[in-house]
Amino acid sequence: MKKRVFDGSIDYIQVMDENGNIDRELFPKDVDDQKIVQMYKLMSMARALDAKALSLQRQGRAVTYAPTLGQEGEMVGSALAMGKSDWFVPNFRQHPVFMVRGFPLDIGLLYWRGFEEGVLPKGFQATAVCVPVATQMPHAAGLAYAFKYRKTGASVVAYVGDGGTSEGDFYEALNFAGVMKAPMVAIIENNEWAISVPRSKQSAAQTLAQKAIAAGIAGVQVDGNDVIGVYKVVKDALANAQNGPTLIEVLTYRMSLHTTADDPTKYRDTQELAPWQARDPILRVRTYLTKNGLWDEAKEKEMAEGQLQAIDEAVEKAEQFKPDPGSMFRHVYSFMPQTLKDEFDAAVKSGYWQQPGSE
Ligand SMILES: Cc1ncc(C[n+]2csc(CCOP(=O)(O)OP(=O)(O)O)c2C)c(N)n1
Ligand SMILES: [Mg+2]
Fold first, then answer.
1. Is 171 designated active site?
2. Domain-by-domain residue ranges, the chain?
3. What's the gap in Å between 314 CA and the centre of ligand 2?
């Protein structure tokens, strides 16, 4: 006997195309022109902040930085889709998500300046920036399950790169979330590269979204440079999260460097950029807004000036910050063990640094 025991498929969603045209059937009901203007402003702010952070690092005013150029659509769209009680679990590239969720810009800059104080303020509903690839995913699944266990009604949005989907942690998290029906929405930011490893070398699977099928959860692919499309799929997945997880693959492109320690000209053809420039997430929304009489040069100028001023103020605040070297002792454990306390006391005694407020 032979019978088909399983069939699977993956849908691709795009709501606004490269030319600013909209698919009315898929268009989310809670999005109006005002919301599209908000999306545009947030994506523009993310891009302005990105350019500033990169230049600060190049001037030696930041230690390192992971650029987001080209990925603003998926980050702003997914962040706006989250509800008040939801949490997100980042890797190391979600600065626009932090910004949209209200993380203070100057504290974000402190992180990239290398200070312990650039961590999450109390009450901010996210886990810490996670550099080890995909290790955030089991945390996300566990957090989501804890929310379900405690009947909080909250969900978790977790971010992972295309490279991260090759890690065991990614599969373990998806498997756990599937079995436990944890309210987790996992977003794969498929930006075509994992440092110098292209998507084609990452997996033989035709889509990364289909990895959901093996975990027995919902999976969907979306144009990651379509802010409204991403907003829609994340919102839909969150609306269903109490019934179980969803895996979303956003198709986007890392237009800049992996980090400021990277030089992509060493491993990728610069000609790759042109088609992605045409698919720019900000450009298409501006085309839509201009076509519909919602945006013009004067509004653009006013917005850009306001954003640059806010960024300059945040930079000034971050650069005036006086670090407390004692924080490198205090943040290692939840309490300070005796051995560390001895070192701390010795350092204070040596006069190596001044206690804050002692100047
Ligand atoms: C476990 C682990 N292995 C290797 C690295 C070095 N590393 C940092 S980022 C990265 C690539 C990540 O690519 P991807 O998941 O596609 O995310 P992207 O950087 O493209 O956003 C690697 C290999 C690491 N940080 N952690
Ligand atoms: Mg990648």
1. no
2. 11-260+272-321, 324-359
3. 29
